[in-house]
Amino acid sequence: MKYFSTRGGDELLSFEETVLTGLAPDGGLYIPERIPQLPADWRTAWAGLSFAELAVEVLALYIDPAELPRAELRALVDRSYSTFRAPDVTPLRPLHGRTYVLELFHGPTFAFKDVALQLLGNLFEFFLQRRNARKAPGEKRERLTVVGATSGDTGSAAIYGLRNKTDIEIFILHPKGRVSPIQEAQMTTVTDANVHNVAVKGTFDDCQDIVKALFGDKEFNAKHRLGAVNSINWARILAQTVYYFLSYFHLGRQLAATLTPDELTEVKIQYVVPTGNFGDILAGYYAKRMGLPIDKLVVATNSNDILARFWKSGAYEKVDSSTPGAGGATAPAEGSSDGKQSAEVGGVKETLSPAMDILVSSNFERLLWYLAFEALAANDAATRRGACDTVNSWMQSVKTDGRVQVPTKVLELARRDFVAERVTDEQTLETIRSYFESEPSYVADPHTAVGLAAARMIAPHNPPSTVQVVLSTAHPAKFSDAVTRALQGSAKFDFERDVLPSEFRGLLEKERRVIDVEAPRIELVKEVIERFARDEDAPAAAGASV
Ligand SMILES: *Cc1c(COP(=O)(O)O)cnc(C)c1O
After folding, report:
1. pLDDT digits (tens, 9 = 90+) for 265-274
2. Residue 380 confidence (pLDDT)
3. What is the Å distance from ligand 1's center to 399 Cα?
4. 322: nearest Cα among 331, 313, 330, 332
5. Given the residues 2, 113, 201, 288, the one annotated as active site
6. Among protein residues, the one whose CA lies closest to atom 1 of ligand 1
7. Pair 178, 204: CB distance under 8 Å
């Protein structure tokens, strides 16, 4: 299997190159040259597999065994998911009625990004080690310096994915004092020598601008081989397809306990996904296209609703032009590591589900490619290039005009597989309350609550045989402010007893390692990277410069 850029189409990359490159040089995102189909016997052969076993089966469909032999893939997958606390890795829990939650937050940082980043870290390390093992003595080792900015949500998942990895340094910038205490502690209490938390006196936007400037600095970039772990990396999407398959089997077993075989065959499965950069739900789209019987995928956004608006009108636009008095287009911001964009006028709204506060949705381009391809309705290399050209022109419009209107045919294709809903902060709080008070009682984090709220909005339009699986993307203790705000009026709610995991106790008192940067200036951050990018522990690095 080879990969190509959504804006290129001609050049084909191996899986390894795709993973190490991240974003294509032409600005596009890598996608597989075809979507593999499930083996004919998948329903029986895969039915009893564990998460790790299933991951090997699914990933092997996308990775040439000559590049990554099955036994090595198995070892990488085992290592990646041994860090999860739940035996099922991503357990499925029944709520009332025909609603289930797929809990994706049992990894080291209590958020769903662990599912992808635990694997990505091991893939990076594996490929670098293999390249370095092939080098002649004295030849310069390949190393990777991962740099990112975080407002708190995603930095820790990247850090836990890359901690203690050979030939990789990670620098995560956060705005000093502007990250929640738990999130700050989660990041800075990781004291591995290759992890560098950089506390910048400034805002999240300052941090992000610095990271963008570093990536734009060709000389510095080449010298340190900067790498990003943002959600556009193909391996992250691929890792996330696995839990759609696993939950399908879990759901089948749970439903078989209450439904007749006839009823079971009638069931329509809807996956409801709280969405920001469209990574998590895109993985579901791949699963569906591979042959997993998913009826509809539900895009659940907060009030940063560019995606919900797209499914209403076919316009992909940063600013809602249908609202009177809305401002003009804002300047595009690219290359961000949290996927967040600057909070300019008419920009990102701050919500109770901050991991979904985005202006544009970086992975959406991958879906646009498939829609463009299908709308062209042929199946040869010329059409592939045609789809790339179409995507290119759409993304150019977004860049220059802040918007693009896709043809009706494309919107119809998008509606075949997806439904979209927008959820306000008020609805989010109300949903947290109502699920806490339901039987069985469930404490949802605000992101999961966006999904639960969207599921409820859609439900009246569904056929009665529909079952909804809502993806739960974070542990409620990670977003304690919103959860406490929703539940403080409830006499039976006790944060410490009902929510706080034992791993979070004492976290604030643990030893920390953090590098302070006194002003948001790129030179100061460069100095930090120069000073802390270690070389000495690399076995063959004597005398080599990085
Ligand atoms: C990143 C994140 C999301 C959104 O995921 P996308 O793949 O960007 O759509 C939702 N919830 C939480 C808690 C997250 O960290």
Report:
1. 999 999 999 9
2. 63
3. 23
4. 313
5. 113
6. 355
7. yes
- Residue from 356, 358, 475 to probe ligand 1 pocket by mutation (most atoms less than 8 Å from CB): 356
- Whether residue 165 lies in the annotated active site: no
User: Which residue, judged by its Cα, is nearest atom 2 of ligand 1?
Assistant: 355
For residue 483, count CB atoms less than 10 angstroms from its CB and return exposed for 0-12, middle for 13-18, buried for 19 or more: buried
- The C-alpha atoms of residue 304 and residue 302 are separated, in whole angstroms, by 5
Rounded to whole angstroms, how far apart are CA atoms 152 and 170?
15
Report which DSSP code applies to 435. H
User: Which residues are 272's β-sheet partners?
Assistant: 298, 470
Distances (CA, A) of 275 to 314, 350, 394, 424, 447: 18, 15, 21, 14, 9
Q: Of 392, 389, 390, which is closest to residue 400 (Cα–Cα)? A: 392
Cα-to-centroid distance, 509 and ligand 1 (Å) = 28
Q: Which atom of ligand 1 is nearest to the CA of 113?
A: 15
How far, in Å, is the centroid of ligand 1 from the Cα of 273?
9
336 Cα–ligand 1 center, Å: 15
Measured from the CA of 478, which atom of ligand 1 is nearest? 13
Neighbours of 129 (CB within 10 A): 15
CA distance 489 to 484: 9
Ordered per-residue pLDDT tens for the chain, 546 residues: 999 999 997 899 999 999 998 888 898 999 999 999 999 999 999 999 999 999 999 999 999 999 999 999 999 999 999 999 999 999 999 998 899 999 999 999 999 999 999 999 999 999 999 999 999 998 988 999 999 999 887 899 999 999 999 999 999 999 999 998 889 999 999 999 999 999 999 998 899 899 989 988 989 988 898 888 888 999 999 999 999 999 999 999 999 998 999 999 999 999 999 999 999 999 999 999 999 999 999 999 999 999 999 999 999 999 888 765 544 444 333 334 444 444 444 588 999 999 999 888 999 999 999 999 999 876 566 789 999 999 999 999 999 999 999 999 999 999 999 999 999 999 999 999 999 999 999 999 999 999 999 999 999 999 999 999 999 999 999 999 999 999 999 989 999 999 999 999 999 999 999 999 999 999 999 999 999 886 644 443 333 332
Q: Which residue is associated with the tokens 């099922």? A: 88
Enter the tokens of residue 11.
Answer: 């050049």
Ligand 1, closest atom to CA 273? Answer: 9
Residues with CB under 6 A from ligand 1: 111-113, 153-154, 231, 274-280, 355-356, 447, 473-474
What atom in ligand 1 is closest to the CA of residue 275?
9
Q: What's the CATH number for 238-322+332-487?
A: 3.40.50.1100
Bond prior to 440 in cis (omega within 30° of 0) = yes
Q: How far is the CA of 355 from the centre of ligand 1 (A)?
A: 5
Nearest ligand 1 atom to alpha carbon 447? 11
**Ligand 1 midpoint to CA 132 (Å):** 34
